Amino acid sequence: MNAEELQVSAFGIILHSGTARPDIHEAFALMRIGDYEEAVEKLESANKELVEAHHAQTELLQHYASGVEIKIEIIMVHAQDHLMTTMTLLEVAKEMLELHRKIKS
């Protein structure tokens, strides 16, 4: 895999995880005002974006597993960091949603 292909994959991961993050933050705001249905929609939207980012990551792993040499560049480190922190944020948001629902019931 050449440097350009790696960069395209990295930017795909960054794009999709970056698109997911504002949806998660909007879901937090919606939870605070008790609009749980809309919060769920935002979290589902964020999850769809993270699935796309994960597909790009999985494609890289498949190349690596098949013996393709992949030289890791700083942009890929950044992409992985972006993806993992956004995935963690989504997990926290889902837990917060459940807590908000329990408190308001």
From TrEMBL:
* Pfam families per record: PTS_IIA
Q: Which InterPro entries does this entry report, sorted A to Z?
A: PTS_IIA_lac/cel, PTS_IIA_lac/cel_sf
Which residues in this protein are found as Phosphohistidine?
Answer: 78
**Which keywords has UniProt assigned to this entry?**
Phosphotransferase system, Sugar transport, Transferase, Transport
Protein's UniProt name: PTS system cellobiose-specific IIA component
